[in-house]
Amino acid sequence: MSLPPEKATELKQIIHDHLIKMDIHGKIRDVLAETVRGDGQHGQRSLSEEDFIHALQRRGIVEDVMKDLHFTNVPLRRYLYLQVLGGKAFLEHLQEPEPLPGQVCSTFTLHLHFRNQRFRSKPVPCACEPDLQEGFLLEVHRDGDASKMADATTMLSICDPVHMVLIKTDTSGDTTLISSYFLDWRRVLGAPTGKTSVSAELLGVGSECKVAVGVLNLKLELYPPLTENLSPDVVTTQQSLERQKTAEKERLFLVYAKQWWQEFLEIRPSHQSKLVKIFAQDENGVNRPVCSYVRVLRAGRLLESPRQAARFVSLLAQERAPVVGGGVRQEQWCSMMAFLCRNKGDCEDHATLLCSLLLGFGLDAYVCVGTKAKNVPYTWVMTCGTDGSITFWESFTAHRYLHRPIDPDAPPMVPQPKPTHPYRTLGCVFNNKRFLANCQPSDAVELCVFDFTDGSRWKAMSEEAVRSVCAPGSTSSLPPTPPLCSPSVAPNEASNQLELEMRYLLAEHRKDLGLATVWDDHLSYLLSAALSAYELERCTGVLCGNEEFQDAVRRAVPDGHTFKGFPIHFLHRNARRAFATCLRSAFCEEIVCCRGDHVRLAVRVRVFAYPEAACAVWIMFACKYRSVL
To answer: What family classification does the UniProt entry report for this protein (predicted)?
Structure first.
């Protein structure tokens, strides 16, 4: 069973305090000494862990621990226990062979989000009937007051669904979004026994959003049980009323948006071709206002600054929505939960996440919709400073560009600033509260003036209209915003493991060439400083610490010797893929295949962990050898 991290910590602390109180260490020492003496007298084999556990059970130590361990009998909060009891009808995997023991195979992982709580199942082999057997304990708390027990009426008004995202991970570590499903858990409120079973039919995503991909068998149970259950009719009536209310709000917004768009077209006929995007389809094929994709997202202690947030977003891989067959690029915006679980997405996903994080850091941030070179549609982020400065943020690279507009009315001899950014045209900007279309004579970014109070340059939508369908809780159809998860990668262990693999691959490659490999561990250690400086530069834009690294290398390389180093950056931890990429660089191959007198090789790997499964992987190959003229 999965518990929220704070609950697991609390439970561990209770057990730890109890074990200390009953002097468990002293009792274990006594039993261990007695068991070892007994085995020594009878000339038995060495004591195994199993023998020792049996000895503890015989002495009644385990029973004493369980008997005296008390938890509070009065629960203060209500919980939903959601059990996943396996899957069926995943027909795409009908011919999947049974994996052999120890064999690497593709896996399914189920991710859950409910009211600011996130969980993840253990990965299981992909199959027609995947063995997803998990239990998740979800806290159902009152809004603004989590200390009081939520009753049936309060819980009925909680329309937040359980968002379930199924991810497939192939043998190379590549992830695919299989399904994004919203479970209305409130049917359990009308179950006579306080328990109910559900067969959740999962649908595909994107172009396959109407096609069933499989079924999950679920069981829902409330703890502690309700003293009085609601009538099933009351639950269905509440759900029906919420759907009607949502549909009416969405209808009114659509009517307003059509009228607003007509007014925009009347300003200038050329506006018909501008990239003014009011709605976008999510992974389930649902049309949603673009403002609903942006939220104020605070990362707690996981990210320390806006620039570190930009670095984190840039580490999520880039991938366009897959298309079956040829044709034009299919646009698919993702809910934030699906994007984070998949750990990759297109420019729209990166831009909306970065904008959400920058809003969380108190900046006036907007998503920009426009084009870049060759008229390719694109999205990026901009922030407006209190001094009127405009900064563009590239979500794929974390690069920042200061916008300096060109004055088209300036005399020809007056020097004009040259744009450093890759953006060409701008159709509209938006965030969680505002939507503004560019109605300036030219939509070229270099000519844009970002004075949003000037109605002759920017046509704004009514903030009240945007709020009616995009504010959190405004409609029951909006996916709730998930919190960021702590890094899932242990950086030191990951660094050591990948470095060992790279050493092995390098030595084997040289062996195939008939070359011996002699490592210089001291030189390898010195490379850490450079890798740390490179990552710091990516986060802050400032290179520091390079002087110390250069000085240390000069001391480590004797007179008459040559030093060569090659750093490279990856978003994954697949050693073979990384090594193959490195060898495509002529300079790196020169180091790896170095021949000469007194050749010493070094390699250093640093994995920097970020929230979710994002990580920055830096690898540096180096060699030193005696120069022979």
So the answer is: Belongs to the CEP76 family.
